[in-house]
C-alpha cells in the first residue's frame, strides 16, 4: 500500500475528528517512519485496538506500531511536560519501546506554560469574538516563532545560560503585553533543566534523518493534525488553527520536497460535506470516508453538493466569513439504507443505497474512495478495490 522510499500523507479534510487516528494506525502497519509535521497537543486522535483505547495529542498515532520510528518534525510545537504525560499514559495502556523509537526535531518550538496562560488571556480579551481555542498555547507559540523570539528544542539542548537569557526575554515581552501574567522564572528554569536531560536522548536533526531514510527505501507516513478547514491560510479564518494543516505544512514542517510525496489521503466523515470545489479535493489522491455507520438509521440523506452566492453557483471556497455566511447550500437527496453496517467488511456487502452514497461522493469530489469506516475499531474498515 505505501510506496517504498516515498511519503504517504493522511490529512483531515473537514474540521477535525474525521478519524485520522484510525486511518494512520491502519496504514502504519506498512510504514517504517510515522511523522507529525504541524500543530501541537491541541490535536486529539483516538485509536481503538482490541477494545482498548489509546489517546494521542502530540504523538503520531502510528507510534503504536512497534516497528515504526516516530518523528515530531520542525513544524510541530511541543509542550514538553504534556509530551511526557502523554507518553506515560499510553505506556500504561501498552505502548512499547517509545524511548528507542521517538525522534524529536531540534528545530521544533517549545510551548511553555506561560504560552498557555497567554492563550487564555487572549481569548478573554476577545470576549464574544473569542476563537474557542483549546488554550494549549499553540497560537502564542507560533506567534513567538514568527516574532523570532521563540525558543526551540535545540536551544534547550545547548548552553543553558543562553537558554535562560532567551527565556527571560520572552517572559518579559509577554509581561509587557499582559501585566497580570505571573511566571516564576527561577522554578520554571529549574524544571526545564530537568526536562533538557529527559528529552536529550530523543532529539535529532530530523531533516537529514528523513532524507537518508527515504534514500534507503523506507516508507514514510505523515499524519496531519487538525484539518483543511482549520488551515491558517485556506480555512475559515479567523476560526482556524495557527498552522498550515493542508499539504504545504507537510513540506515545510518536515523539510520534505514535494517530489517525495506519493499519495495524499484525505479523511472525511460520512456526515459532513465540504463547501464548493476549492483547492482541497485536488490535493488528494484518494479519500477515506469514515463513520458511515453513523448514518445507518437515517431515512434519507440530504447531501450538500455545492453552494450558491448571490443566486449564482460558485466553484471556489469563499475567503471571508461574511461571504460564507451568505452562501446557500444546494442539496441532492438520497434514500437511506436503514440497516447496520458495522459488521460489513467488503464493498459488495454494503447496502445498495450506501454504495450509491459512496459513489456520489466519488463523483462530486472526483477522487476515489479507498476505504469506508463502519465503526471505531481497527477492524471496522471496508477496503474499496480499484476498478
Ligand atoms: P481525528 O482527530 O481525526 O484523529 O479523529 P479522532 O481520532 O478523534 O476520531 C473521532 C472518533 O471517531 C474517535 O472516537 C474514533 O474512535 C471514532 N471513529 C473513527 N472512525 C470511525 C468510524 O468509521 N465509525 C465510528 N462510529 N467511529 C469512528
Automatic annotation (TrEMBL):
> EC number(s) for this protein?
6.3.4.4
Q: Name one GO biological process term.
A: 'de novo' AMP biosynthetic process
Q: Which family does it belong to?
A: Belongs to the adenylosuccinate synthetase family.
Q: What is the protein named?
A: Adenylosuccinate synthetase
Name the catalysed reactions: IMP + L-aspartate + GTP = N(6)-(1,2-dicarboxyethyl)-AMP + GDP + phosphate + 2 H(+)
Catalytic residues in the record: 17 (proton acceptor), 45 (proton donor), 145
| Complex formation | Homodimer.
**Pfam families from the entry?**
Adenylsucc_synt
Q: How is the cofactor bound?
A: Binds 1 Mg(2+) ion per subunit.
The record's section on InterPro entries has:
Adenylosuccin_syn_GTP-bd, Adenylosuccin_syn_Lys_AS, Adenylosuccinate_synthetase
Q: Which GO terms describe its molecular function?
A: adenylosuccinate synthase activity; GTP binding; magnesium ion binding
Where can this protein be found?
Cytoplasm
- What top-tier enzyme class does this entry carry? ligase
Give the function comment from the record. Plays an important role in the de novo pathway and in the salvage pathway of purine nucleotide biosynthesis. Catalyzes the first commited step in the biosynthesis of AMP from IMP.
Q: List residues binding GTP.
A: 16-22, 44-46, 291-293, 373-375
Q: In which pathway does it act?
A: Purine metabolism; AMP biosynthesis via de novo pathway; AMP from IMP: step 1/2
